[in-house]
Specification:
- This protein has 284 residues and is of the alpha+beta class.
- Helices cover 27% and strands 30% of the residues.
- The chain has 7 helices and 11 strands.
- Strands 1-6-7-8 form a 4-stranded mixed beta sheet. A 4-stranded mixed beta sheet has the order 4-3-2-5.
- Strand 9 and strand 10 form a beta hairpin.
- It starts with 12 loop residues before the first helix and ends with a strand.
Length: 284
């Protein structure tokens, strides 16, 4: 995912940080997450007249066809992959492990074989959403102008990496790394992690200068569609940025691949220190 997202640097990041009224740096940790599809990996394989047919739940039938052809040293024309209705995937069913296992067993016993991973196998052997570390350093002036934005993503991916906010001095980079766990695509790819880190940091900057979170975001945007979803979510939510004892209010926005989303949330902490979501309002 990182190869398609080059360094989007511009301006002088160090000068922007040095000249800021306030500076704020933070490290965000992105956890590995299992896809947990409703249906674990499963396949039925049948050999007949030197040809292989596999029924399997996959998001990439042509990729699985190529994997099978490579493993059994066959041409793709002799491998057929059929995809029945699939019990969810979320980016986790791109590879053909179950198909390969079923095909190997079917070849040995010379009969069709159905193979289904257990829920435990799904958690242990399937690949995960990439874990990572995101380091963000930013500078902001009292009037709400962001003077510098340094955003370094280690491993978790480059989708949604660059900021939509107006910043004259910025550096946004994705740096791949060797991963200790098997990792791969996950719904929305890496944008969930990058939007999370970016919007948390934007809220922190707004609080530093005691500016309303929505006002601060709109001030630093030139993208009408992004402004529109934030304002639509805020209007439906009844955003006032007010504080109620034990309640917290937040607003955030995301953009990736032409899609914009604005979100307002109200959460509360009860007497047992449990965090409860009271309501969420979104505009897309």
């Amino acid at each position: 995912d990182g190869g398609r997202n080059p360094d989007n640097s511009k301006g002088d990041i160090e000068r922007g940080l040095t000249g800021a009224d306030f500076k704020h740096s933070k490290t965000y940790k992105i956890h590995y997450i299992a896809h947990v599809p409703l249906e674990p990996r499963a396949a039925v394989a049948e050999w007949m007249d030197g040809k292989l047919t596999v029924w399997t739940g996959t998001q990439r039938p042509f990729g699985v066809q190529q994997e099978l052809a490579d493993i059994f040293k066959m041409t793709k024309e002799k491998v057929r992959v059929l995809v029945p209705d699939t019990g969810s995937g979320y980016g986790g069913k791109h590879t053909g492990e179950a198909a390969i296992e079923a095909a190997r067993l079917a070849k040995e016993v010379k009969k069709p074989v159905k193979l289904v991973w257990s829920r435990e196998e799904e958690f242990v052997w399937a690949y995960f959403r990439p874990g990572g570390v995101i380091e963000v350093s930013a500078g902001v002036n009292r009037d709400g102008t962001i003077t510098a934005w340094k955003f370094i993503n280690y491993n978790s991916g480059g989708a949604g990496l660059d900021t939509e906010y107006k910043i004259s001095n910025k550096q946004t980079v994705h740096l791949p790394s060797e991963t200790p766990l098997k990792q791969g695509s996950y719904r929305a790819l890496a944008s969930t992690a990058n939007v999370f880190a970016r919007e948390c940091h934007m809220t922190d900057l707004a609080r530093l200068i005691k500016m309303d979170q929505l006002t601060f975001r709109v001030k630093n945007l030139a993208d009408d569609r992004f402004i529109a979803v934030l304002q639509a979510a805020a209007k439906a939510f009844g955003w006032k940025g007010s504080k109620t004892r034990g309640h917290g209010y937040g607003i955030a926005g995301g953009f990736v691949k032409g899609g914009y989303v604005g979100c307002c949330a109200e959460v509360m902490i009860n007497s047992d220190k449990e965090v409860m979501v009271v309501r969420i309002t979104q505009a897309f």
